[in-house]
Write a structure and sequence with these properties.
The complex is a heterodimer of chains A (about 500) and B (about 60). Chain A contains 13 helices and 24 strands. Chain A has about 500 residues and is of the alpha+beta class. The longest helix of chain A has 20 residues. The radius of gyration of chain A is 24 Å and the shape is globular. The two termini of chain A are about 40 Å apart. With about 60 residues, chain B is α+β, with helices and mostly antiparallel strands. In chain B, about 10% of the residues lie in helices and about 25% in strands. The longest helix of chain B has 6 residues. Chain B is globular and about 40 Å long. The chains are: A alpha+beta (about 500), B alpha+beta (about 60). At the A-B interface, strand 15 and strand 17 of A face strand 2, helix 1 and strand 3 of B.
């Protein structure tokens, strides 16, 4: 990766994956395009050159979205050649943090253009109103930075903000987050909480900053590790060295959350695919907006692959650390977009007796994971169809499942009982009987090659040569346009 | 059968005093009492006690 990773450098590197749109409204239209692309299973990065603001004028900032909707593209942005190995790679990279470096203001592109005080206006930013029931325009790809007033250690996390005026927005750090913990500490001292939001960076930096860390651990090292070089930080205009911001980001919004001030925030379309209820949130009173002179705005489509893919990839890295500690046979992990953030597919290689359940239990200890399924190496955990096949043919429900009650979870789940504070989880061992893994190998014929036949029947398959011939014939027909009207369902 | 073994839903709805539109709200927001709700349909703000109706699950 070149020096100074940035969003613009990344976009320049993927011209073939870019969908350029001349102009669209920030009110629903751009998000509707993402919904339409997702329905078609197409995942280009979308660049809207002239986002149209609610007053009909064009924003000075172009907008990029769908940046991380493609798992393959996102893994490549992290330097991971095979997205199937993202869990292991993510864990290894974030386990070797690269400390950030400090740069001067004149070397920080994000401070090329400065709006302070009355000159600052959130309303000129091309923030989107995404869903029908959203009350207004939201910052969705904004990483909020706070600092622990006791230790001085910073924390950064993606948290939404609703623009309520030129210099006022609600900001929703979920109560269990580290930013909310820092906020409460400031407020307990009777002081406003310093905060800054950075928007737009190379996906490796943005995703690295989402690494799941313990309270008191700064995320900059993980961001640098994924980007392959030390992240460049610059003192914020408002908070100075106490609160540093990424020098190569596109936009930074600085301000304070005044103590005890809470306002309504939401409803907002959440990752689970439902509207989250309107709730209490602190507000940010903006003191300054800094940006590149030709800044690009970044938006995440909440609840679509655009946002789920990077967050799930970071979660896969965390699960890898948790499961690897107890299950050496873990080979790969997938948190599929189809399950939002609630499902974890675990691939094991020749697990010893009991190891599948060890892995499942470790996965279910993560707050968001509600169902974990363990399979053998012959099952493609990146194919929902393959996972359904394994569940259909390798599980006796009374023998191979277990439930856990009273676990922490996400309340953004309509199945929760009203007032409940914990959730119910399930682990499913869909591995084959010990010694049977070879029988499941696609195209394999373990009954012939093994000295002792496995205890289950081999997987059905046609000979490889016949399969290659059929694929070649279909390829030729499709090249001639014969497949155009064939039904797909 | 305990209350947690029945499916009753978990969303609290408030009805806007102005446009009669419905919005999902959290129990914490209603409990705050002095924090105004904001209608996403008509952009009107109103206190919880001013809601036309509040419907709770079950």
């Amino acid at each position: 990766m070149a020096d100074h990773p940035s969003l613009r450098a990344y976009l320049d590197s993927i011209p073939q994956s870019l969908l350029r749109v001349p102009a669209m409204s920030v009110l629903h239209e751009i998000t509707a395009l993402q919904y339409s692309l997702e329905a078609q299973g197409r995942r280009p990065v979308v660049l809207v050159e002239r986002p149209r603001l609610p007053d009909g004028s064009d924003s000075a900032l172009p907008l990029v979205c769908n940046l991380t909707a493609s798992r393959v593209l996102t893994a490549a942005a992290l330097g991971i050649a095979d997205h199937r190995q993202a869990a292991r790679a993510f864990a290894e990279m974030t386990g070797q943090p690269i400390p950030p470096i400090r740069v001067a203001m004149q070397d920080a592109p994000v401070q090329q253009h400065i709006e302070r005080g009355e000159a600052a206006s959130l309303e000129r930013l091309p923030a989107l109103k995404q869903h029908a029931l959203d009350p207004g325009r939201y910052l969705t790809a904004s990483h909020a930075i706070t600092i622990d007033p006791d230790s001085g250690v910073d924390n950064t996390a993606i948290q939404r903000s609703w623009i309520k005026g030129p210099r006022r927005m609600s900001w929703y750090p979920y109560p269990s987050t580290h930013n909310a913990r820092n906020l409460r500490k400031w407020w307990a001292k009777g002081k406003p909480c310093p905060v800054a939001f950075w928007i737009g960076h190379h996906p490796a930096v943005s995703i690295g900053a989402q690494a799941k860390l313990a309270y008191g651990e700064s995320h900059w090292g993980a961001a640098g590790a994924l980007a392959g070089s030390a992240l460049r930080l610059v003192p914020s205009l408002t908070h100075g060295d106490a609160l540093m911001v990424p020098a190569d980001a596109e936009v930074v919004i600085e301000g304070f959350a005044p103590p005890g001030v809470l306002e309504a925030d939401g409803p907002f379309g959440e990752y689970a695919g439902y509207m989250g209820a309107q709730t209490l949130a602190p507000v940010c009173e903006v003191t300054a907006i800094t940006r590149r002179s030709d800044a690009i705005w970044h938006d995440y489509a909440s609840g679509l692959a655009d946002m789920l893919v990077p967050d799930n990839m970071a979660l896969e890295g965390k699960l890898w650390q948790m499961i690897r500690a107890v299950t050496p046979s873990i080979e790969a992990i997938h948190i599929p977009v189809s399950g939002r953030r609630f499902h974890a597919w675990l691939q094991l290689r020749d697990p010893a007796m009991g190891e599948a359940r060890d892995a499942l239990t470790a996965a279910l200890a993560q707050r968001r994971i509600k169902m974990a399924v363990a399979v053998n190496g012959d099952v493609d955990i990146f194919s929902d169809a393959d996972m359904m096949w394994a569940l259909a043919t390798r599980v006796q429900w009374s023998r191979d499942t277990f439930t856990l009650e009273g676990m922490s979870g996400s309340a953004l789940d309509p199945s929760w009982a009203a007032g409940a504070r914990t959730t119910s989880k399930i682990g499913i061992d869909a591995t084959l009987a010990a010694g049977a893994a070879g029988a499941g190998t696609a195209g394999g014929d373990a009954s012939v090659s093994s000295p002792v036949p496995p205890p289950v029947a081999p997987r059905s398959a046609v000979p490889a040569e016949a399969l290659h011939q059929a694929q070649a014939m279909l390829g030729a027909l499709q090249a001639d346009g014969h497949a155009h009207d064939w039904p797909t369902l | 059968m305990s209350q947690f073994s029945e499916k009753r839903g978990n969303t609290i709805w408030a009805q806007c005093a102005g446009c009669q539109g419905w919005l999902p709200v959290s129990a914490a927001l209603l409990a705050a009492k002095t924090v105004a709700l904001h209608c996403p349909h008509c952009q009107k703000s109103f206190l919880p006690e001013q809601a036309q109706q509040v419907v709770r699950p079950g």
